[in-house]
């Protein structure tokens, strides 16, 4: 096996003693590992860096993307939750296949293991990692932005026993905000995706504030701040103002006020 720790230490330089296809296959296999050092610190960080630097060809990226999409159905949590991270890198690098989107959507709404960090497995972060891909797809011209906005609200409204932590609600809020920067969104597009939250919060569960309601309100609060102040796209880039800003803010306020009526 390649000494991947040394590769990192050498500024992620590509080893020359083996074909690139073999190196990528080895890294892809390590992305399945329950060892967070092998999976996250080595395999993910190296693959993400190589993709960002243009080391892999478009055909190699497509093949890797297909492999990641298949992992959305994997029985192991860490395998499922690291697939969107690599797909995010691939889409951001300019390679996209329409058939990647439906499996991602099915997984993201249905994922039940919403732990952020596990003492043995390390970071799992299904919501946050999926958010990163959602945001990348939301900016892609071949994807309808409303589709991603509806996916985001559907995810946080899905019944769960887990209250989000580790900044996952902020990550989803950022993904929704970046999607809202799309100039092709109409006024209706920019606000109507919130209607499912209106319907659910208008008829609150008899048991009171459920985890999914808490998750929804916290995510929308983070989104409101980004809509109000603007969002950096990419995260290190210039601030972009969101079209229909005032309408979006007003709709978010209406939704949040249903649970917290003391908001102005």
Oligomer: single chain
- Helix count, DSSP H or I runs of 4 or more residues: 13
**Low-confidence parts, pLDDT < 50 over ≥5 residues?**
none
Q: For the record, give the distance between the C-alpha atoms at the N and C termini, rounded to a whole number.
A: 60 Å
| C-alpha geometry | globular
Strand content: under 5%
Number of strands: 4
Spell the H/E element sequence. Answer: HHHHHHEEHHHHHHEEH
Descriptive notes:
By secondary structure, the chain is mainly α. The chain has helices at residues 4-9, 20-30, 36-53, 58-70, 77-92, 101-110, 126-139, 145-157, 168-179, 187-192, 195-202, 211-229, 245-257; strands at 117-118, 122-123, 231-232, 239-240. α4 packs antiparallel against α5.
Short description:
The protein is mainly α and 264 residues long. The chain has helices at 4-9, 20-30, 36-53, 58-70, 77-92, 101-110, 126-139, 145-157, 168-179, 187-192, 195-202, 211-229, 245-257; strands at residues 117-118, 122-123, 231-232, 239-240.
